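step=encode ok
step=design start
structure_in=
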């Protein structure tokens, strides 16, 4: 679980979005204004199962958001561009 969060931070470096997968981890990612205090303006939160499905491509970002499995707030909180994670794809 933590590896996939770290991988997101590698492929989408930055501090504009806080991605929360309680109780397993939190990471800041996506280029943009850095947030340092209080509640970040761009937050993504989901459960571990949903996160793994998103990271591996078993679940599409839009389906997760539309189905209420992901809470995403803020203009930079759309992670569709970075998911699924490249490192988790099966390579030929």
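sequence_out=
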């Amino acid at each position: 679980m933590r590896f996939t969060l770290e991988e997101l931070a590698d492929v989408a470096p930055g501090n504009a979005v806080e991605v929360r997968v309680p109780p397993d981890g939190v990471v800041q990612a996506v280029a943009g204004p850095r947030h340092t205090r209080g509640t970040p303006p761009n937050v993504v939160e989901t459960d571990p199962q949903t996160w793994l499905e998103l990271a591996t491509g078993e679940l599409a970002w839009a389906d997760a958001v539309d189905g209420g499995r992901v809470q995403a707030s803020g203009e930079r909180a759309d992670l569709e561009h970075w998911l699924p994670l490249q490192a988790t794809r099966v390579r030929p």
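step=design ok
step=annotate ok -> The chain is about 25% helix and 20% strand.
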